[in-house]
Amino acid sequence: MEGESQTQIPHVLIFPLPFQGHINPMLKLAELLLLAGINVTFLNTPHSHRQLTLHSDVLLRFSRFPAFRFRTITDGLPPDHPRTFDFFPDIIASFETVTKPILRDFLISGHFGSDLTCAILDGLFKFLVDADDAEIKIPIFGFRLLSACSVWTYFCVHDLIQDGQLPIRGEEDMDRVLTNVPGMENVLRCRDLPSACRVTDTNDSILQFNIKQTQRSSEFHSVIFNSFEDLEGPILEKIRTLCPNLYAIGPLHALLKAELPNGTECLNNLWDVDRSCLKWLDNQPPGSVIYVSFGSITVMGEEKFMEFWHGLVDSGRNFLWVIRPDLVRGKNGDVEIPAELEEGTRKRGYTVGWAPQEEVLGHEAVGGFLTHSGWNSTLESVVAGKPMICWSYISDQQVNSRFVSNVWKLGLDMKDVCDRGTVAKMVNELMVDRKEEFMRSAAAMANLAKRSARPGGSSYADFHRLVQDITTLSQLKRHH
Ligand code: UDX
Fold this sequence. Notes:
- This is 7-deoxyloganetic acid glucosyltransferase-like.
- This protein is α/β, with parallel strands linked by helices.
- It folds into two domains: 11-145 and 220-250 and 455-479, Glycogen Phosphorylase B (Rossmann fold); 276-450, Rossmann fold.
- 45% of the residues lie in helices and 12% in strands.
- It is built from 18 helices and 13 strands.
- The strands form two sheets. It has a seven-stranded parallel beta sheet with strand order 3-2-1-4-5-6-7, sandwiched between helices. The protein has a six-stranded parallel beta sheet with strand order 10-9-8-11-12-13, with helices on both faces.
- Strand 6 (222-225), helix 8 (229-240) and strand 7 form a beta-alpha-beta unit.
- The longest helix has 22 residues, at 88-109.
- The two termini are 17 Å apart.
- Bound molecules: uridine-5'-diphosphate-xylopyranose.
- Residues 19-22, 24, 145-146, 269, 293, 295-297, 322, 354-355, 357-358, 374-377, 380, 395-397 line the site of uridine-5'-diphosphate-xylopyranose.
């Protein structure tokens, strides 16, 4: 029969947490799946969808896939809610009470189409679907958008508490080395644990939320990581003991770039991109610029901001700095800017509100990256072969920065300090004194990253295994 021979095209629902660092890689996964012939519906909150369509070319870019759909679902928050990361607990609570039952109805009623094969939810959205909900008939995958090393750390936090290693006993305890995190013995100090561990009461709701969501990862049908074997193989192996169905398909942006003609750039921005910095970079000597960006959610006080500024100017190096309009908390504009800062910035610096980061990191004028160690930024720096100075802010970044400096040897860890002297010293250590050493290790890791994303590489293979497994699920669904 004609109908029998027709193959059903698989259809995947993708739903990220409404933050830049989560939407961006999930959109890259969507594009990769579409290129592999899988239909995708991408679910956003109305707020992030508005931001995204206002500041990026996603509507145009995805219009070449006729079966692709953007859909929205409410986050349950009032229109004037700031929705910044500071309000993470509010946002999660609202998702739990308002969004969860709506999503459930959507999934049960076939709102996204009766052909829906499976859903790929943000790994932190495990709470949106109950494991024993028999009415939700499609497999639910989880995409952990953090490093494997930080997720594994979260897996181990419960044991650290049981063992009396946590809570951390004040500032003087921060450099205590943790000897018994399996697979990371003697790697982490207390200060390198995810920032949620910096609490005196281990019943703290954010810490418990992270522990619980991580432990529940094994309830997902499968877990996806934006990482690769040559970077995090031994840690991924540890996670497989709890989540055996695991795909390591990173760096996603390298995988996607390899699939697109002439390495087209994909910008999935929630802010307006200022491309003028690329022209400025064109006029700087190769390897001379330290690129500075703290990602999409970092906020700092005016005092820290000024220390960074002094440090960058005092370093005597060229710098390109992303100063998001909301980077500095309570900026009053009354602070007098010292003349030497104005002068130093005019001579050697350039600032933008939001940069085309992947292109910036790939520019030959950039010799290093002062970063907050967000996982996307870390992977983008790895692929570009640029050494890092890590000033971690929250969450997984504390773990990432330790791995960058002490495990992968790709740079320096500046966590918890940012006085001008340290900033200037570390910029010079990275860009001058130990430049050769760091450039060599960064180039070697960049090669491994790119190799993993090409045919024959581990991430390439895992991505195609994912496509095959989704296709098989779709065929099974059709036969039932
Ligand atoms: C957050 C968390 O902080 C991070 O630790 C977690 O792993 C993912 O979610 P964020 O803080 O925004 O993300 O950092 P990061 O993960 O580095 O993502 C930022 C993204 O914005 C990157 O893809 C980067 O290329 C992009 N970006 C940043 C720009 O395109 N332009 C900029 O000027 C700055």
